[in-house]
Known about the structure:
By secondary structure, the protein is of the alpha+beta class. It has three domains: 4-103, Rossmann fold; 132-201, Dna Ligase, domain 1 (2-Layer Sandwich), CATH 3.30.1490.20; 207-447, D-amino Acid Aminotransferase, Chain A, domain 1, CATH 3.30.470. Helix content is 35%, strand content 26%. The strands form six sheets. It has an eight-stranded antiparallel β-sheet, sandwiched between helices. A five-stranded parallel β-sheet has the order 3-2-1-4-5. A three-stranded antiparallel β-sheet has the order 7-6-8, covered by helices on one side. It is globular and about 55 Å long.
Amino acid sequence: MINKILIANRGEIALRVIRACKELGVRTVAVYSKADEKSMHVQLADDAICIGPGPSSMSYLMIDRIIAAAEIANVDAIHPGYGFLSENARFARICESCKIKFIGPSAEVIEMMGDKNMARATAKRYKVPIIPGTDGILKTDKEALEAASAIGYPVMLKAAAGGGGRGMRPVHNEAAISAAFASAKSESEKCFGNGDMYMEKLILNPHHIEIQVIADSKGTVVALGERDCSLQRRNQKIIEECPSPFISDRLRKKMCAASVKLCEEIGYVNAGTIEYLVDDQENFYFMEMNTRIQVEHPVTEEVYGVDLIKEQIRIAAGQPLSEHVRKGVPRCHAIECRINAEDPYNNFAPSPGKIHSYYTPGGRGVRIDSHIYAGYEVPPYYDSMIAKLIVTGNTRDIAIARMKRALMEFKIEGIKTTIPFQHAILDNSDFKSGKYNIGWVEQFLQKRPKG
């Protein structure tokens, strides 16, 4: 087993990895920016090393500082979490060259599936359905205009190196192409250091369904069902659930089989997620693959009774998938709410600042993944998510009732959060009946009372 791991991340995912390591008897090293000096992951790690100022471009994205910290601490492996450097092939390659195990797939696979345009081509090669779109990179807005004319409006401009909803722009007519192309390209360059763009046909009101896969180095690949991530605002996920209220058993089997086959063909190792768009006729289309652990992984863990972070570490150490993971079957329904430091009644403006009081819900079937506490100062430099509230129930109705109760108990004072907004969604009849898709939240926002 690996003896010491550096976590190249922050916040709740860093704390999540630390907890898994402690249960495995593995020592941990946290890296942190000056803004995160008092974060819980720093306090609970065995060792902690400061790697720079608050902005991520000067700390969590600095490969040389993270590698230097790993060498100083003499670690065996690095867990990248999600975001930041988790899908950076160069980082994975440097780790391996320094004889430090990167807990994730190989740099070659990250490169293949991390580039969204290359990933589309790979999926197409192995007979996984893809959304009609361009086969190469769009270099200018003129090329984007020609491509849109060939594909037919509406279309979606997407960053080749994108993720998390960044670098994406829907375009409904010719007049909007140039501005959308410039905006998406600029955002992609800022977020990913890569402005390459491609285009897909925009499927109206689809469902966003993702399949959790995990594979060991022995050739075993398992698909642990699906997560429904259709509740989104501006391409950012708000609430996720497993299993999906929309997916039939027949479609689930087809999507899982396609996902396993793709992973087998590309030699995928470790945890990953394959994301699809599904239309109302149950046609599914490959969208992208995330070659890392996902924010929403806890709903799969709860439904299938597995610990995906522990499995990631075991796989990196050369061990086979645990038997209970290989034979995992769904046992309940789970819902996750992402609690963000945002003001839902002020256009979701970020709300950093000091948390004066903090009370978390409890009781049967309630899980909190968070790094915050009373007195904690939420910094302004990072993603606004400060906690994940996950509930389980024997049925979807029980899970919904439990989530509503838990949201009412959850008290965070001193900053604004999305808790009241999520409670309103849970209380909506469309959500209760599972009648939602990617466009539902925006429609809900337009109808709801202000203030």
